[in-house]
Design goal:
This protein has about 280 residues and is an alpha+beta fold. It has two domains: about 150 residues, no CATH class; about 110 residues. About 50% of the residues lie in helices and about 20% in strands. The chain is built from twelve helices and four strands. The protein has a four-stranded antiparallel β-sheet. A hairpin with a 3-residue loop joins strand 1 and strand 2. Helix 3 packs parallel to helix 9. The longest helix is centred in the middle third of the chain and has 34 residues. The chain is elongated, with a radius of gyration of 27 Å. The mean pLDDT is about 95.
Length: about 280
């Protein structure tokens, strides 16, 4: 069986950097870890790599899941054996942020703890090697490469799972968003539509895209695009009845910014929706 190669390591390294491209300190730690791993003359290179990898993962967890954010989540409970936020809680936050457990399990069909487990297990596997003792020295190349690969591949894997969770949110909230956007269209006068005719009535709409723009401990914001179909009436009802007025229908693309609560993502306030309709085609 072929073991982990340096080419495998380089591919994993590039994936980590691509996952967090603006993090300069991450690049610094990773550069140091790689130098230590390649230093065959260092008899404890594997131990130094283990220490560096532990700090690398710790940095990723603390950057993507700050203490204050994790503590504000509806699901957060202080662990009995520590006063700090645990690694498992940080990894859980990276996947689900402030979304409640019931929503994540029942609507998204995800287990955040299970998704975080491989990275946490890989980090736990570093523990013995970070303490240099006569019986814990790690120098053999294959052992160093395996250690590197086991940890590095799990960082982008967790972030990929996070991206998948965001995509699942779109499907889970589509119905609630559709209803809230429609209610917003009815409750508020949309100037762009109102000025098209004597009486403009929203008939229906459909959603084309949903994008999660922000998700943290307390907030979830979406950008929704779609098309609204309206009835345009020229003249009064009496004018229409006497054939001196008319009615027609038309559709126009819209863009909506929607703000909600992460702890209750299916309850969307229609008054918290900012809607913009593009009626330029009407004037063409």
């Amino acid at each position: 069986m072929t073991g982990t190669s340096w080419a495998d390591i380089d591919e994993a390294r590039r994936a980590v950097l691509a996952a967090m491209p603006r993090d300069r300190f991450l690049k610094t730690i990773l550069k140091g870890v790689m130098r230590a791993a390649r230093d065959k003359q260092n008899p404890i290179r594997g131990n130094l790599v283990a220490s560096g990898l532990r700090e690398l993962v710790t940095h990723v967890l603390h950057t993507l899941a700050p203490d204050d954010e994790v503590r504000r989540c509806v699901w957060f409970e202080q662990a009995k054996d520590t006063k700090t936020v645990t690694r498992a809680q940080r990894a859980r936050y990276i996947v689900q942020a402030g979304l409640p457990d019931a929503f994540v399990k029942e609507k998204l069909k995800l287990d955040a703890a299970a998704l975080a487990k491989p990275l946490l297990q890989a980090m736990d596997g570093l523990h013995k090697a970070t303490h240099v003792r006569a019986d814990t020295v790690v120098h053999k190349g294959s052992e160093v490469r395996d250690m590197l690969h086991d940890v590095l591949v799990e960082i982008p894997a967790l972030l990929d799972d996070t991206e998948d969770a965001r995509e699942r949110i779109n499907d889970a909230v589509a119905g609630a968003l559709h209803n809230a956007v429609f209610e917003s269209m009815i409750l508020d006068t949309i100037q762009e539509l109102d000025e098209l005719s004597t009486h403009t009535r929203v008939d229906h709409h459909w959603i084309e895209t949903i994008e999660v723009k922000r998700l943290d401990a307390e907030h979830i914001d979406f950008v929704v695009t779609g098309e609204v179909v309206v009835e345009l009436q020229y003249g009064s009802d009496s004018d229409v009845a006497n054939d001196i007025g008319m009615r027609s229908s038309d559709g126009y693309p819209y863009r909506a910014k929607v703000s909600g609560e992460a702890g209750n993502p299916l309850e969307i306030d229609p008054y918290a929706i900012r809607l913009k309709v593009d009626t330029s085609s009407y004037y063409e």
